[in-house]
Amino acid sequence: MSKAAVISKLRELKLNTEGSTEILRKRLKNHYRKQKLTNANLLTVSKLFPYYVIVDFEATCEEVNAPNYPHEIIEFPAVLVDTEKQKVLDHFQAYCRPVLNPTLSDFCVELTGITQDQVESASLFPEVLANFEAWLAKHKLGTKHKYAVVTDGPWDMGRFLYGQCKISEISYPQFGKKWVNIRKVFSNFYRCKRFCLKLMLEHIEMIFEGRPHCGLDDARNIARILLRMVKDGASIQYNERIHLTSRDAKNIQNAANRICHNCDS
Ligand code: AMP
Ligand code: MG
């Protein structure tokens, strides 16, 4: 390759074009070597998990939710992404029957597209959670394979899952203790504001596919963003965790005792 050809290639790659022919050739060679290594070691170089599980709960709501409104999870969707194959492998979806507010508000039906019939014929949350954990186990996630849960914002775990576990009087699940908030990773990586799902898609010239506020469609679109970020070389690590207080632990223990009493009676 002539010096001019090397310089033109370096320019194309936005690399420094100063130095002797020998140095320029070395710089180009190093770039290709690094690129090859990056592709081969995608997981280690970019600090990625081999699998991601995107979760986007839908919950009971009113048009204006009071700060202490007891949101109950009514849709539990998840999308499994394989980082190395760079594709969606599988999904999980189940509706849940709310108990505190068993009748969905018109606003909630309109927002989520979830019908009264769908929630009335659904299982209660603890059974759905057990089915989701069986789905994780079927894919050997958390055993043979490392994975991280991904959400858009902190609310899915910090508000919906936490609140639902209290309402259902069950322990807070392990998978929700640490997770990836994609909104944070996105704004740090692309150096932009913290955008909502629609605006994150627009920022990378994509449009929402499906129905917004359908939990499964929301999760599928988050997966599209995640896959684009993997391609662009982002590191996608845990950036949120829930701190359970000793009072939470005590409540969980009390609930466990009550469940045991119920079993005895
Ligand atoms: P999302 O993932 O944005 O679809 O929202 C999750 C849940 O947050 C919904 O199922 C509702 O319970 C609640 N929510 C979202 N947007 C609104 C809104 N504009 N007004 C009231 N509740 C909402
Ligand atoms: Mg949603």
Automatic annotation (TrEMBL):
<feature type="domain" description="Exonuclease">
    <location>
        <begin position="51"/>
        <end position="235"/>
    </location>
</feature>
<dbReference type="InterPro" id="IPR036361">
    <property type="entry name" value="SAP_dom_sf"/>
</dbReference>
<keyword id="KW-0540">Nuclease</keyword>
<keyword id="KW-0269">Exonuclease</keyword>
<dbReference type="InterPro" id="IPR012337">
    <property type="entry name" value="RNaseH-like_sf"/>
</dbReference>
<keyword id="KW-0378">Hydrolase</keyword>
<dbReference type="InterPro" id="IPR036397">
    <property type="entry name" value="RNaseH_sf"/>
</dbReference>
<dbReference type="InterPro" id="IPR047201">
    <property type="entry name" value="ERI-1_3'hExo-like"/>
</dbReference>
<dbReference type="InterPro" id="IPR013520">
    <property type="entry name" value="Ribonucl_H"/>
</dbReference>
<dbReference type="Pfam" id="PF00929">
    <property type="entry name" value="RNase_T"/>
</dbReference>
<protein>
    <recommendedName>
        <fullName>Exonuclease domain-containing protein</fullName>
    </recommendedName>
</protein>
<dbReference type="InterPro" id="IPR051274">
    <property type="entry name" value="3-5_Exoribonuclease"/>
</dbReference>
